[in-house]
Each structure stands twice: as structure tokens, then as C-alpha cells.
């Protein structure tokens, strides 16, 4: 495969193995997958799963979600050729040059490493932070753990500055088959010089991020942005098994972005659901390889992993003293450097072996924490949690005594090291300008919205979980679960006080917020806490875990971190939330200062009305009869100018994919349904999509399991290999040229030798 290669060579894929072929008759990636994992029929998931299971088993490094997407999209050969027969153009790859600041290179990026002789073509399969102040023994200064890109001991980078961060990239130098792989002698010479790659065959670069927001993106969003910008030519190539433009149904930027994120979500869901794989973050490994590692008695085998877990568990345990009280101790340990300290590990950490060793070590630590600890708390009194999943192969936090800390998810990257060394100022709030005079919609008070869930009820321990509501934020109160009322302290005072302790996972609270004296109040035969000072970044729908103290005089509330931040509407959160409450109550015009539609512009009015008045799905979607939108906003039939302003706002929100149109029906009682039911009048709906493109499940009825059109599948246009000696018809050549023009190639492209073009069609019963 040379630098001008843009036509796939003829390769016999996976013959006789039973593993699906990316170039086969049935596409591995389908249009249903652009809507996310939840929308994909089981038979399509199974076909993709069998292929990805084989890819993970065949590759030496753990397979990241982005790398798994590359394999299915560009056609990774399991017979040893890798991407050697794919449509990738080597000249399109970004170049990494020694001594220069590198662009953002997420995992999955195809790159060219410039050397003094032959260039190195590789796929980035692993990436981590390489901060120079992390010691060779794995000791990490507290401020580094969880620090944002560009930060230093004094704080964050200045506003407007482009942050830089040193990163270690692990390239797979054999991903493009033997033809583009250097010989062992050539690689040894390059590693010895340590100019373009280091002694381990890795690339250490200073990455320049265009903005602080870009540096905070999650892996999949960063890779989607890379594909649609730097790697756009290879992404939209018509020679791939099925082009993204075909799967998305067009070339509009919004359609491509949404479809690509949906495909990545599907690939991630398939990897997570596979019975033969284990995942660490976005990295997938076979369970067989993990079991073999635990049985191995050599370097970085089971004995070394047990030793690593024991070292992390006891890192913060102080030496015994005869006199005095032992002060709290916190130690941060980086996995990558610590692995290098084991005898005989040097050779095993070269190349992609480093990525495999780091991921196996983190899985081992996670298993020990979950198996032997109670939310990270061990019998020796130490609390072990993952604090930074990115820096130096993963940074684990050991704290003693652990009993003094509120429990949380020990495997959520909390960034307590960074948070413990500084306090960030709150974001300034802005108020909208008053333009219209709409009706204030009443706040829903449905008992089924955000109910309390009892987690544990024992003699000395009652724990429940409940979402924060808008009314709680505005009036500073929170309801108590009925099962603890009998154990609360009794007092002659009508408003006895209790101690409330708040913990916001990964964040540092003000002292007045972290510990408060609040009152107990009885309202309608139920008791609640009143006079609560809620932290400034608490919002409606935020999930709170509430625990009653042993004597009933202390109530502890805590939030839980998500594995990675998520965007829901206009809000980005890194904490667990209730999607129904968030959709209904975290609307424009509603915050802790009040709940009013006064002063909102038409776009905000539309969003507020759809979310407040539309019927909810369990995942936070809201659907509203489009014909009643104007009257729902104003409480009456508004003026023509107001209707026109609302319709214009709806059109803009449709284009931005914040709202989406749908078709439903209305029964004789006036109740809407989606999908439309037979025999009922059809009505247009406006749907609110909170986070990402998903299947809108039926609402307004119990028809949750209908098959609908599940037996029919849309097959986009794609290339198909021909039998030896066969050639495509002139008609198919013309159809392919037109297909290329629709993808944005004004002059079209010719069919590659040995291929024909299959036009889009429906396959089904």
C-alpha cells in the first residue's frame, strides 16, 4: 500500500471463520446504529458483536471504542493485513514532527511519524497524560491528579490562553500490515536514537488545544471532531464499506455529527455488552487474556498485580506511634510508572504492551476495590478511589482514615487531588431580557416524577436516593423518607434542629454548605428538612444519596460522579441525575431564584413549553402536540406576529437538532400517542431530545413492546466485491458516479477494479 493508494485491494476476509466481513453482503454498520445503541435491533448488534469480539482477540493492545469503530468502518482484516486493504490514503494522515507542538490526536487517529528515513504509519491505540512532575516511582503531587490541561501549581491557565499538555501516545506500528511495518532492526534503531519515538516505541508530544473546552472533551466527542475535520477525506470516502453520508441520509454537518456520535455510542454499547470482553473506560480486553495474566507467575503477572493492589491499599497507612494522634494521610499513586518498577517488566512495557499492562492493572485494582472494600473503604481503615483516569496510566488515591470521608463511587474519576488544593470561583449568572408576556406554566407535581428510592433499611443505617426538585432549590427544603421519621430526635420545640452534611463528588464546597444546622418541619403528616443552603451548582434533577446517622441527629447527602461528563440540553453535568426531573424542571426561566417565563425570547419559550407540557419518556424525552404549542405558551390564541415568532423559533431548533419532529395520533379522549395508532387521527408532534439522538419510545399508553417496522431494514448504497472475471455494468458505473457527486465529489469517482455498486434498498420480510 503506497502513499497514493485510494482503492482497496482484493482481500478474502474471514473466510470460514463465521466472523462477519465489513465488506460483506450485510453491512456491519447500519442506519439504525446512527441513533445509538438503544435503537439497534438485536440481530444487528449480534453481527457487529461477533466481528468486534474477533478484532479484540486479534489485536495485541486493548481496543478502544474509537479503534473498534475504525475496524468496522474502514475494514480491518483479521488475517494479518490489518488496514492494508482498506481505502485509507496515507497522504491524508496528520504528521507528527519531533520538537514541534502537535495537534490534538485522540485515540483512533491514523498518523504519520516523520523520521530521518522511512516514515512510520500507525494508528493511535492508547493515550495518557505524561506530566513531567510525576515521579519514576509513581508518586503524584496532589494538584496534578485531576488537573485540567494547562494548569500549574498556581491554578488554571488564563482565560483565552490555548492550553498545552504533555501526552504519551502509543502507536500500533503494525496496524497497516507487513507492507508498511518496519523490520525489528529498523525499529530498534529508531528506539535507540529516541528522536522520533522513545526507547519504548511511544511518542511523547506537547499537545496544543485550541481552547480549554476542547481539552475537556470526552474521548468519543474528541474523536468525532477529529474525523469530521482532520480526517474528513478518509471518513467520507465512497470506498469504505458503507459511507457515513449514506448512513446519515445526507451531508449536512449536523446530520453527520449526530450520526457519527450515534455510531460511536453503538460500538461502545456492543463492547460493554459482550460476554467475552471486559472494559476499562473505553478500552476492551478479552476475559481470557485477563485470566491468563492472573495465572502468569512471571513479570506483570498475577503476583505483581496483587503486590500493586497491596501497595496502593497500604500507601496511606501511617507507621504506628506510641504517643499522639495520627494526622490524616493522602497518597496518590500513578499506575504506569509503578509498573516499570517491577523486575523484568521493561521489555513487556514496550510498544502496545504498555497499553495492555496498564489496562490490566487498572482492572485488577478495580476488582480488588469492589471485592474487598465497601465503596472503597477497606478493613484497615484506608479508602481507595480512582482519582484521575487519564494521567500517567491512572492515578489512585489512598486516604487514611477513610471513615471521615463520605462514601461515593470509588471508580469515578473524582479529581480530589486538584480540588483539594484550590477553590474555583462560581460562574456569573446572566438574566434574560424581557420581551414577551407569556403564561407561567404550573410546575408539575406528579408523585411519579422523581420518587424516593429506598436503598437500605437496617437498624443503624437507612439510605435512600431521591432527585433534587426545583421547589427544593427555591425554598431551601428536602423531604425525608418515611422509614426514618420514627428514629428522628424528638424535641419540645416545634422545629428541632439536626446536622446536615453535604458532599458534592469531585467538588469542594464552602464550609457553610458542607455542614449546616437545619430545622425539622412537619407538613401534611410528613417531615422535611428546611432552611437548607444549597450549593450554587446544584440543579433540578441532581440525584442525591441520603444517609441517616447512627443516632438520627446527622443527615448526610452526597452526589455521585458519572464516568464522564454529558451534555443534556444546555447543561453539562458530570454527576448522576434523574432525566425526567431534569427535562421537566431545569427549563429556561427556572432557577433557584424563581420560576417565571417573563422576559424569555421565543426560542426559550418554545423549549420551556415543550419540556413542561409534553409527555415524558423514562429517558427524559418530551413530546408535545404541535398544534397546541402557541396556546400552551400564552394561555390563549396569540397574535399572528407571536405565532410567526414561535414557528420561526421551532424551525431554528429543528435545524440545530435540539428539537425534532415526529408523527403521533390522538385518541377519542384527546390523549396523544407515539407511534401513531391505527384508526386514530394523525397529529404532528414536537419532540425534545435532551442528550443525543435516541429512539423515542411509546408514551401515553402501554404499548412498549410492539415490533413496528423492526423486520424491515434500510440498506444504504455500498460497494460489493465481484467474483473473479466479473465486471460491473455501465448502469452501475453511472449510479456510482452520481452517488459520489451526492457525497460532495463534483467530478465523481470511478468504481475500483473488482467492485460493483449496490444501490440503496429495503430489506425485510
Structure description:
- An eight-stranded mixed beta sheet has the order 12-13-18-19-15-16-17-14. A five-stranded mixed beta sheet has the order 2-3-4-5-6, with no helix packed on it.
- It has 765 residues and is an alpha+beta fold.
- Among the domains are: 20-87 and 237-286, no CATH class; 287-419, no CATH class; 453-561, DNA-binding pseudobarrel domain (At1g16640 B3 domain, Beta Barrel); 601-688; 717-763, no CATH class.
- It has 21 helices and 32 strands.
- Helix 2 (65-74) packs across helix 8, helix 5 (219-228) packs across helix 8 and helix 18 (602-613) crosses helix 20.
- 26% of the residues lie in helices and 21% in strands.
Amino acid at each position: 500500500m503506497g502513499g497514493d493508494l485510494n482503492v482497496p485491494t482484493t482481500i478474502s476476509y474471514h473466510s470460514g471463520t463465521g466472523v462477519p466481513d465489513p465488506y460483506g453482503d450485510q453491512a456491519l454498520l447500519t442506519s439504525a446504529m446512527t441513533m445509538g445503541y438503544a435503537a439497534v435491533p438485536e440481530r444487528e448488534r449480534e453481527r457487529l458483536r461477533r466481528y468486534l469480539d474477533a478484532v479484540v482477540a486479534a489485536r495485541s493492545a486493548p481496543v478502544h471504542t474509537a479503534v473498534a469503530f475504525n475496524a468496522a468502518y474502514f475494514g480491518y482484516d483479521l488475517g494479518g493485513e490489518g488496514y492494508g486493504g482498506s481505502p485509507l490514503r496515507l497522504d491524508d494522515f496528520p504528521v507528527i514532527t519531533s520538537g514541534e507542538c502537535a495537534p490534538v490526536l485522540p485515540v483512533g487517529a491514523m498518523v504519520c511519524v516523520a523520521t530521518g528515513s522511512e516514515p512510520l504509519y500507525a494508528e493511535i491505540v492508547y493515550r495518557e497524560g505524561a506530566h513531567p512532575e510525576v515521579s519514576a516511582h509513581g508518586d503524584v503531587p496532589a494538584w496534578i491528579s485531576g488537573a485540567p490541561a494547562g494548569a500549574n501549581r498556581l491554578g488554571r491557565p488564563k482565560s483565552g490562553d490555548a492550553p498545552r499538555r504533555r501526552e504519551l501516545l502509543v502507536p500500533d506500528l503494525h496496524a497497516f500490515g507487513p507492507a508498511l511495518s518496519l523490520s525489528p532492526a529498523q525499529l530498534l534503531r529508531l528506539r535507540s536514537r529516541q528522536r522520533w519515538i522513545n526507547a519504548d516505541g511511544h511518542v511523547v508530544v506537547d499537545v496544543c488545544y485550541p481552547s480549554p473546552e476542547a481539552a475537556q472533551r470526552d474521548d468519543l466527542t474528541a474523536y468525532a471532531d477529529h474525523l469530521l475535520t482532520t480526517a474528513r477525506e478518509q471518513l467520507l470516502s465512497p470506498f469504505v464499506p458503507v459511507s457515513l453520508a449514506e448512513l446519515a441520509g445526507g451531508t449536512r454537518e449536523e446530520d453527520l455529527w449526530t450520526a457519527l456520535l450515534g455510531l460511536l455510542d453503538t460500538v461502545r454499547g456492543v463492547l460493554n455488552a459482550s460476554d467475552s470482553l471486559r472494559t476499562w473506560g473505553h478500552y476492551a480486553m478479552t476475559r481470557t487474556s485477563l485470566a491468563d495474566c492472573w495465572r502468569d507467575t512471571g513479570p506483570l503477572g498475577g503476583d505483581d498485580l496483587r503486590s500493586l493492589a497491596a501497595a496502593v491499599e497500604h500507601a496511606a497507612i501511617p507507621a504506628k506511634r506510641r504517643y499522639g494522634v495520627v494526622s490524616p494521610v493522602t497518597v496518590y499513586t500513578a499506575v504506569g510508572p509503578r509498573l516499570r518498577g517491577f523486575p523484568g517488566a521493561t521489555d513487556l512495557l514496550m510498544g502496545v504492551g504498555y497499553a495492555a499492562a496498564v489496562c490490566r492493572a487498572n482492572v485488577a485494582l478495580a476488582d480488588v476495590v469492589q471485592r474487598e472494600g465497601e465503596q472503597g473503604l477497606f478493613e484497615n481503615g484506608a479508602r481507595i478511589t480512582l482519582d484521575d483516569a487519564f494521567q500517567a496510566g491512572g492515578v489512585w488515591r489512598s486516604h487514611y482514615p477513610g471513615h471521615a470521608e463520605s462514601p461515593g463511587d470509588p471508580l469515578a474519576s473524582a479529581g480530589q487531588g486538584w480540588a483539594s488544593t484550590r477553590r474555583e470561583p462560581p460562574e456569573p449568572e446572566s438574566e434574560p431580557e424581557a420581551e414577551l408576556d407569556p403564561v407561567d406554566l404550573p410546575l408539575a407535581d406528579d408523585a411519579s416524577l422523581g420518587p424516593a428510592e429506598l436503598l437500605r433499611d437496617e437498624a443503624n443505617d437507612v439510605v435512600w436516593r431521591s432527585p433534587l426538585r426545583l421547589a427544593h432549590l427555591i425554598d431551601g427544603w428536602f423531604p425525608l423518607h418515611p422509614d426514618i421519621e420514627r428514629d428522628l430526635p424528638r424535641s419540645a420545640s416545634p422545629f428541632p434542629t439536626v446536622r446536615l452534611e453535604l458532599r458534592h463528588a469531585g467538588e469542594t464546597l464552602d464550609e457553610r454548605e458542607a455542614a449546616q444546622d437545619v430545622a425539622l418541619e412537619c407538613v401534611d403528616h410528613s417531615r422535611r428538612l428546611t432552611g437548607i443552603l444549597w450549593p450554587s451548582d446544584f440543579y433540578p434533577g441532581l440525584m442525591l444519596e441520603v444517609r441517616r446517622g447512627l443516632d438520627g441527629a446527622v443527615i448526610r447527602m452526597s452526589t455521585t460522579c458519572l464516568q464522564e461528563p454529558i451534555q443534556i440540553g444546555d447543561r453539562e453535568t458530570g454527576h448522576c441525575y434523574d432525566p425526567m426531573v431534569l427535562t421537566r424542571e431545569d427549563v429556561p426561566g427556572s432557577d433557584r431564584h424563581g420560576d417565571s417565563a417573563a422576559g424569555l425570547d421565543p426560542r426559550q419559550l418554545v423549549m420551556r413549553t415543550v419540556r413542561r407540557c409534553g409527555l415524558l419518556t423514562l429517558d427524559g424525552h418530551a413530546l408535545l402536540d404541535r398544534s397546541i404549542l402557541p396556546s400552551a405558551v400564552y394561555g390563549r390564541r396569540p397574535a399572528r406576529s407571536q405565532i410567526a415568532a414561535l414557528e420561526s423559533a421551532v424551525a431554528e431548533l429543528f435545524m440545530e437538532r435540539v428539537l425534532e419532529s415526529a408523527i403521533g395520533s390522538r385518541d377519542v379522549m384527546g390523549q396523544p400517542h407515539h407511534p401513531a395508532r391505527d384508526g386514530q387521527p394523525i397529529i404532528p408532534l414536537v419532540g425534545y431530545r435532551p442528550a443525543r439522538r435516541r429512539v423515542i419510545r411509546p408514551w401515553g399508553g402501554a404499548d412498549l413492546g410492539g415490533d413496528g417496522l423492526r423486520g424491515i431494514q434500510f440498506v444504504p448504497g455500498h460497494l460489493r466485491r465481484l467474483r473473479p472475471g466479473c465486471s460491473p455494468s455501465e448502469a452501475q458505473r453511472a449510479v456510482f458516479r452520481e452517488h459520489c457527486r451526492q457525497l460532495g465529489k463534483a467530478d465523481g469517482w470511478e468504481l475500483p477494479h473488482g467492485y460493483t455498486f449496490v444501490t440503496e434498498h429495503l430489506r425485510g420480510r
